[in-house]
Amino acid sequence: MLEGRIPHGTNSGYTYGCRCDACRAAKRVSWEATRKRRLESGDFIHGRPSSYCYGCRCDACRAAWSASMKAYRKRRLESGDIIHGRASSYSYGCRCRSCVQAGALARAR
Ligand SMILES: [Zn+2]
Ligand SMILES: [Zn+2]
Ligand SMILES: [Zn+2]
After folding, report:
1. Is residue 106 part of a domain?
2. Measured in angstroms, how far is the CA atom of residue 106 from the centroid of ligand 2?
3. Which domain holds residue 2?
4. How close is the Cα of 71 to the center of ligand 3, in Å?
5. 54 and 68 in contact (C-beta within 8 Å)?
6. Are 51 and 61 a contacting pair, CB within 8 Å?
7. Residue 47 CA, ligand 2 centroid: distance in Å
8. Does residue 101 form part of some domain?
9. Once rounded to an integer, what is the mean pLDDT over residues 68-94?
10. Is residue 83 domain-resident?
11. DSSP H helical segments within 42-96, as ranges?
12. Distance in Å, CA 80 to ligand 3 centroid
């Protein structure tokens, strides 16, 4: 274990695999900076889900993003890697009774 040698509160702490609050915050800040830089420099290819993550909301990127979300949900659902009775499982497409109920409950809120 690298405990003690991890530079907490930096992006590299996160890269080392640390998920403490300080490292997570640093990671978020650095991701935000990357995202902004990419978006401003136009250094990304439209029609890719990653471009949507960078903040582009053009039609091509939106379509790529929703297609990738759909594929992701389908994969989760097919692999059975979901917990039933959760609204998120309902959004993954599970229509079992407990997921439908959870989905309806989440919408009612
Ligand atoms: Zn840390
Ligand atoms: Zn775009
Ligand atoms: Zn279910």
Report:
1. no
2. 31
3. 1-41
4. 18
5. no
6. yes
7. 6
8. no
9. 93
10. no
11. 49-54, 59-79, 87-91
12. 9
